[in-house]
Specification:
- There is one protein chain.
- This protein has 361 residues and is of the alpha/beta class.
- The chain folds into two domains: 6-215, 3-Layer(aba) Sandwich (Rossmann fold), CATH 3.40.50; 217-355, Hypothetical Protein Tm841, Chain: A,domain 3.
- It has 14 helices and 13 strands.
- The protein has helices at 19-29, 44-49, 62-67, 90-104, 115-123, 145-167, 186-200, 205-215, 228-237, 245-254, 277-292, 309-313, 316-327, 339-345; strands at residues 50-55, 71-73, 75-79, 82-85, 111-112, 132-137, 175-180, 219-224, 256-263, 266-274, 300-305, 331-336, 350-355.
- The strands form three sheets. Strands 10-9-8-13-11-12 form a six-stranded mixed β-sheet, with helices on both faces. A four-stranded parallel β-sheet has the order 2-1-6-7, sandwiched between helices.
- Helix 5 (115-123) packs across helix 6 (145-167) and helix 7 (186-200) packs antiparallel against helix 8 (205-215).
- The longest helix is centred in the middle third of the chain and has 23 residues, at 145-167.
- The chain is globular, with a radius of gyration of 21 Å.
């Protein structure tokens, strides 16, 4: 039986795990060989062969993640009375954003789960015949989730190496890759969608990982904070670049926030915009111009909003963006912003991402 002591095994420490214990661990958590609800889909075999894992702050809709059988790496948010688990379930996430965000604003931050929790989460989704695991994480420079994912995948691969050699030395090995998105929020979602597209085309896991490492440089995220105090805290904690107090006071005085442009692990201020509908319209307008230029590298625009989605969708700029997406056969993904993103950017924040090789913010 899988013991509490072995639960602490991480990374290369799995080399010391006895083969018998590794066998018990895999058998105890092994999923059925088939995927529920996809046996008739043409990509069912590809889904079983290559398991894709993503950070819960990818800001993609839960229904999309479920349909494509994406494993979500959990995050945790320490709060009074216990930890709050990050979720992508729409109604639960909406309740968290509306009720908990104001009370958590001054102290809370999103933290990745331990390598052991991540490893066990992935293991529960492996099936007989799985030969590849790809984990997509948010920017490694801004979060420990990347290093934790490496430790989790190392441990998992070493455990399966022991198991497969003991059961059938001729069986294909389990291999794993961790891809640093060098982006955040919906930017991770765009990279994830590209991974799914490649998997559906029956590309092997090694090819998918290699392609993602090239593709990530072309993913753009435009983000508008909802409140200046949230982005000031994120700049201090995450970027280690405090915003001067006079800029914070000026921003609050005139209701201005920076519109951020994220690409290839770089963040810069594209311009300063008014909070609320006016600023939201400006961000959506820039995205619309990128769409109309015909330069998108894949047919997806991902949007997340830390507020009621119907209020966002009522904006004329959003209606125009949706119309243009329909005309150009581009998928428009809309989802509530993750608690991770909302804690960084504040209530009313917007994140919009797409891939383009020529876009300039």
């Amino acid at each position: 039986m899988f013991t509490a002591a072995s639960a602490r095994v991480e990374g290369y420490d799995a080399l010391d795990m006895p083969t018998a214990l590794a066998l018990d661990y895999v058998r105890d958590q092994q999923s059925p060989s088939t995927l529920p609800g996809v046996s008739d889909r043409p990509d069912a075999e590809a889904c079983r062969r290559t398991v894709i894992v993503v950070d819960s702050a990818c800001d993609m809709p839960q229904s999309w993640l479920d349909y494509h059988h994406i494993v979500v790496a959990p995050r945790r948010i320490p709060a009074a009375g216990g930890e709050l688990a990050e979720t992508r379930e729409p109604s639960a996430l909406t309740r968290q954003l509306e009720r908990l965000l104001p009370t958590l604003a001054t102290t809370a931050q999103s933290l990745p789960s331990s390598p052991v929790v991540l490893r066990d989460t992935i293991q529960r989704h492996l099936r007989r015949g799985t030969t590849g695991v790809i984990v997509i994480t948010a920017s490694a420079r801004r979060s420990k989730v990347y290093s934790y994912a490496i430790a989790a995948v190392q441990s998992l691969v070493l455990i399966h190496t022991k198991v497969r050699r003991s059961l059938d030395p001729s069986a294909p090995p389990l291999r794993g890759w961790v891809v640093d998105a060098t982006n955040a929020l919906t930017g991770c979602g765009v990279l994830l969608a590209e991974a799914v597209r490649l998997r559906e085309s029956n590309a092997p896991a090694a090819t998918i990982a290699q392609s993602l490492n090239e593709f990530r440089a072309h993913v753009h995220t435009l983000a508008m904070p909802g409140r200046f105090d949230f982005i000031a805290r994120a700049a201090r904690r995450v970027e280690r670049r405090p915003i001067p107090l006079w800029k914070q006071h000026l921003g609050e005085m005139f209701s201005l926030v920076p519109m951020l442009h994220m690409q290839a692990d770089r963040i810069r201020v594209a311009e300063r915009v008014r909070r609320g509908p006016r600023g939201l319209g400006t961000v959506l307008g820039r995205c619309l111009r990128a769409l109309e230029s015909g330069t998108l590298a894949n047919p997806l625009i991902a949007v997340s909003y830390a507020g009621p989605l119907d209020a966002l969708e009522a904006l004329p700029q959003f209606a125009e963006l949706r119309t243009q997406c329909t005309r150009q056969q581009v998928t428009l993904s809309v989802a509530p912003m993750s608690m991770t993103g909302a804690l960084m950017l504040g209530p009313g924040a917007l994140s919009v991402s797409f891939a383009s090789r020529t876009f300039r913010a």
